[in-house]
Amino acid sequence: MTAIRVRIAPSPTGPLHLxxxxxxxxxxxxxxxxxxTFIFRLEDTDQARSTVAFERxxxxxxxxxxxxxxxxxxxxDEPERGSxxxxxxxxxxxxxxxxADRLLEQDKAYHCYCTPEELEAxxxxxxxxxxxxxxxxxxxxxxxxxxxxxxxxxxxxxVRFRIPANRTIAFDDIVRGHVEIDTNALGGDLVILRSxxxxxxxxxxxxxxxxxxxSHVIRGExxxxxxxxxxxxxxxxxxxxxxFGHLPLILNPDRTKMSKRKSETAVADYRAQGxxxxxxxxxxxxxxxxxxxxxxxxxxxxxxxxFDLSTVNKAGAVFDRERLxxxxxxxxxxxxxxxxxxxxxxxxxxxLAAGRIDWLPSEGEMRALLPVVQERLxxxxxxxxxxxxxxxxxxxPEPALIVPKRWDMPTTVAGLTAARHxxxxxxxxxxxADEIEPPLRRLLEDRGWKAGDLFMAIxxxxxxxxxxxxxxxxxxxxxxxxxxxxxDRAIERLGAQAATS
Length: 501
Description:
By secondary structure, the chain is mainly alpha-helical. It is 47% helix and 9% strand.
């Protein structure tokens, strides 16, 4: 039985994309489930757009998600791992030239001297006559003399691979089942080397997959139409054809394809928003695959144990942010106190840097707040909105925000004044949620007020926000003196506003 070897081969021309991360994860899960080898390879031949920064972001993103490769390029001072390297395409250029030379010698490829202008004119002619765009084979059978004449004009040729006409390429896709594609639909003979001898994607990916003994190519559905070209190249190079599995596209909620222009697609953005890797991996795995049960919360170890490539769905996978946030919240609840404090710290530091809080909470203060915070965080970045009011010197909500919808300003002043008196009588010694709530409930009963009105006015007065953790827990966290001081300030501002209106 052929050893299972799979790869993820991103191009460092942009940040780590959701689709790339999901493809990497499915390759990783398949390799780990089957005891195979997971390979990381960098397709960095696009030197105009490739950057070290994007390379680092991709590497960091995959590490953050918990994917460690068995073979791959050296990072920093580390040596590369694996015996099939190098794992960067720019270090393999000689191998592509050698493979192209073999195809030229066997007449499976040829030099093409057509200029961009000639190719564009032919495309325009085909479009005008309603023909599918394809290379017309103009240079496919040039004589040595004709080639010499074209070179004498100063033309620098590309190398084209011969695509046979009138042939059906058939393969059994692990995800999509039996697939057949007519070679006449492939656009004609394929450029594999540019005029400067740099290789193109279709050629490099096949040469590398063959040289690295890749057994399974697991990639996005958008590559399905490329597979016949790759099969033909594998055959021409005399290499074994791997098995293919094409994963469903990730779609927006309106079922359009996710794109960088209209969708949030960079993994780093979700990380910055406070999604945690356990939840993100869990969610990515469920984009196009399921266990076949009602279970949704699965660790990496559980995913590895249960993953089955043959049960991946054919239909597009809709990206549902609400579901991701729900899963993220579930995983946040599973963190230990120490883990959560460590992960929240950079987000509180970001709140301080942005001027939204006046000081950083101590570890003790954070630990005391965990019972209130942990059950309510959809993302780590929400911590500032949830408890930031505790770490500012003053809150100055707009008077209109303090006034409940069913109350006017005088009623609100009266309500807050009565509540302030009631709360003051609780005292410092009895400053606990279950001591604060009963007297305020009695006040409501005595005055005939609704809890939603009075409690919202108190909430906004002491926090500056309409949504916080439970009101009485919030007041306990804020403290006796600060709660009364903020109520006094709100009453003063409302009174002053009422006097001038």
